[in-house]
Amino acid sequence: MTVSGLVATEGSAGVPVAVPVTVARGDGIGPEIMEATLRVLEAAGARLAVEEIQIGESVYARGHSAGIEPQAWESLRRTRVFLKAPITTPQGGGFKSLNVTIRKSLGLFANVRPCVTYAPFVPTRHPEMDVVIVRENEEDLYAGIEHRQTDEVTQCLKLISRPGCERIVRYAFDYARRHGRSKVTCLTKDNIMKLTDGLFHRVFDEVAADYPDITAEHWIVDIGAARLADTPEDFDVIVTPNLYGDVLSDVAAQIAGSVGLAGSANIGEHAAMFEAIHGSAPPLAGRDVANPSGLLLGAVMMLVHIGQPEVAERVHNAWLATLEAGVVTPDVAGPGTSPVGTRAFADAIIDRLGQRPVTLTPVAYPAGQQQSTVPTAAARPAQRKTMDGVDVFLDHRDRDPDALAAALVRAAEGAALRLQMITNRGVKVWPDGLPETFCTDHWRARFQSSRSGATDRRDVVDLLDRLDRAGLDFVKTEGLYRFDGEPGYSLGQGQ
Ligand code: NAD
User: Fold this and answer.
1) Is the CB of 281 under 6 A from ligand 1?
2) Over its length of 495 residues, how does the chain's per-residue pLDDT go in tens digits?
3) What's the gap in Å between 156 CA and the centre of ligand 1?
4) Which residue, judged by its Cα, is nearest atom 23 of ligand 1?
5) What is the gyration radius of the CA atoms in the chain, in angstroms?
6) Alpha-carbon gap, residue 252 to 13, rounded angstroms
7) Are 321 and 355 in contact (CB under 8 A)?
8) Which residue is closest in CA terms to ligand 1's atom 30?
9) Which of 50, 215, 369, 467 is 20 to 30 A from 5 in CA distance terms?
10) CA pseudo-torsion sign 224, 229, 230, 233
11) Same fold, 1-107+270-368 and 125-256
């Protein structure tokens, strides 16, 4: 780890104190765009004390499977601010995604990606687009809890928590308010995933009530995504669970003009990471052609985050003035424009520090108004939890649902729980199944007691013991719980 200061850290009276920031130059085009970014920040008067760490290819090659060395965490924990250039992720098994590791380890729950068009200076089909995607960054299918349970079937757990929803949704509304935006759109698939995405939507509606000054709307993610791709100018701030946000933020950045233009902030309670959304573009490395704008705009978000909004404003407006002057890198050069290299582009921004754009709208980051806040989820009393029964998942190769039902009923003879239903991949196949339904070797058998809430954990253990003795191969169970009388499980008829 090397340490270099852009500005002295000593803070005698009246001298602004430099803020410690961890910086990684990354792989591919990373070192070039980081060099350009740091030069612009320094010229703009950013008060930063830079600590450099190594990440990426060379670190993977030294045997660190997540691409980061143990001692680098000390810097990240100390500075809590990370400006990160892209890295090249090695192909093949055994390597972990550095981004996912950092996000989860540091609890960076919000990924914020502004996707803005700069027409007519950057060609785009959507000249009015100005969308900010706020993506939940820790939960959903990205928990990485996957299992192969039978010969034919694998599963991935989708985990959505109420505190996780509250934090990201409140963050999105706070963001909208702080940045003078008027609408927050929530995208989920709660017509199908009524409990998980349904929770996200419900929390969205609850939190929206605290922000009467901001319009709140919800769209099912499929039609919402289609509208975003078609008429992005109809959107303002979008808040969405992890997977949809991952996909949609790339779509939004691409249709805004170029993935080379968008920066991204990953915000947590204890730390924050700022980067470009693009990768390390290995074919462009070392050629002085890469666009440093994505990383520079990530750095602008960092400056706001660390309380230097006046520097952020100076950099951002000089960058807009540079685009307006027709100075661009090759990736965004339109017909008839002669592009410049990475270094010359940074020099052009430095030359324009103090200028504001004339055609494009200048940015304003008023002091104290825009710094990120980290909302905390409201404490709630635990609800009364009772149990109606259990779903038992079975590995069973014989494809005859009636025969399986007969075997289960025989095995459960005398147990407190009775077989109610069998489904295969969520489709009911017993009782009254259709012979046309395709069945795999993975079955869900629902057992319930005759009275709601009357099931005891020992009833489940007794049932499993009986199934085991009958040679039935259960691969997992899910309790059928009620919370204050409300069922906490889907009805399981399939959709
Ligand atoms: P990429 O983003 O590197 O490149 C996609 C396309 O965009 C390429 O045509 C590239 O030339 C162009 N491009 C990207 N950034 C540019 C810039 N600043 N200026 C001009 N053109 C630019 O995506 P990829 O090719 O799929 O991935 C390359 C490597 O980057 C892979 O190893 C991937 O795993 C990694 N990656 C890292 C991150 C990260 O560190 N955050 C993110 C995405 C991909």
Assistant:
1) yes
2) 333 334 444 555 566 789 999 999 999 999 999 999 999 999 999 999 999 999 999 999 888 888 998 889 999 999 999 999 999 988 777 788 888 889 888 999 999 999 999 988 888 889 999 999 999 999 999 888 999 999 999 999 999 999 999 999 999 999 999 889 999 999 999 999 999 999 999 999 999 999 999 999 999 999 999 999 999 999 999 999 999 999 999 899 888 887 789 999 999 999 999 999 999 999 999 999 999 999 999 999 999 999 999 999 999 999 999 999 999 999 988 777 889 999 999 999 999 999 999 999 999 988 766 566 777 777 889 999 999 999 999 999 999 999 999 999 999 999 999 999 999 999 999 999 998 899 999 999 999 998 877 889 999 999 999 999 999 999 999 999 999 999 999 986 543
3) 27
4) 279
5) 27
6) 46
7) yes
8) 279
9) 369
10) positive
11) yes
Domain ranges of the chain: 1-107+270-368, 125-256, 385-487
Spatial separation of the C-alpha atoms in residues 122 and 329, rounded to whole Å? 11
CATH 3.30.70.1570 holds for 385-487 = yes
Query: Which one of 97, 102, 280 would you pick to mutate in the ligand 1 pocket, going by the greatest count of ligand atoms within 8 A of its CB?
Result: 280
CATH number of 1-107+270-368: 3.40.718.10
The model's pTM: 0.90
For ligand 1, atom 25, the nearest C-alpha belongs to 281
Nearest-CA residue for ligand 1 atom 9 is 281
Contact (CB, 8 A) for 29 and 56: no
Say how far apart CA 159 and CA 169 lie, in whole Å.
16
The rounded Å distance from CA 454 to ligand 1 centre is 56
Please indicate whether residue 32, judged by its CB atom, sits closer than 6 Å to ligand 1: no
